[in-house]
Amino acid sequence: MKNLPAIIIGSDHAAYPLKERIKQELARLGHPVEDVGPGSSASCDYPEYGRAVARRVASGEFARGILMCGTGIGMSMVANRFPGVRAALCTEPLSAALSRRHNDANVLVMGGRMIGETMALEILNVWLRTAFEGDRHQRRIAMFDRVPPEAG
User: Fold this and answer.
1) Is 102 a catalytic residue?
2) pLDDT per residue over 96-123, tens digit each?
3) The model's pTM
């Protein structure tokens, strides 16, 4: 088995079943997975889980994370508040590929109520195997966390 990087994962109640399926696929592929919750489909507050994943990606403890909620929008908003986190809401394989190639996305976000399991698995597999192109894209990513002149 390859020595693949560990991935941290979290969801809300709406995406709990998809999270469990994604964990199975990650295990099948050989990725160790740390699940920050929730542990069931009981109603919960998604920002708690979004922050838990984003904080640990931002700190460098995990190179990549995966977040899911009903639409994926809320989790994207939460995760992208953390410097160094580049969370991409992906709805099909092309957005997953481009999020990695051009933006070096380190958090994949999906909407559990928006896409089916088959599409989610396709997105996941493309996102995992697509490399960052670097070069001009690295220069642009370096601009992400700079404070705009008008703001400060």
Assistant:
1) yes
2) 999 999 999 999 999 999 999 999 999 9
3) 0.94
